[in-house]
Amino acid sequence: MNSPAGRASAASRDPYLTLRRVERQQHLIERLHTSSSRLTLGRLANELGVTERTVARDVERLRHSGVPITVVPGRGGGVSIERATPSGRVELDLPEIAALMASLAALGPSASESAASAMRKLTAALRPG
User: What φ, ψ does residue 56 adopt, rounded to 5°?
Assistant: First the structure.
């Protein structure tokens, strides 16, 4: 595994770096959702204590994953998330609930109030009615 792809793949498996990236990306989504205007990469980088390039990579990963983030380049530009009202209940099957719970467990179910709330709701969904 001396190829560049092999090294990049191994580096991406560093659990500490992965955890930090997940925490940052969760913060980015929540921060963008609470903002009434576009935020610059510089401002987000400052808030997160990382470089603008790191924020730009996180934004691209989130966009690639389907998160509705808009990026406006140039002066007066910035990053925003589409404001939408939840369209109703989300129905998940057991494997989907398990996948989310495992992800939250890796993040730390108390990493943020939203993570703790999500874990409580997912756990409640598994309890017999």
Answer: -60, -40
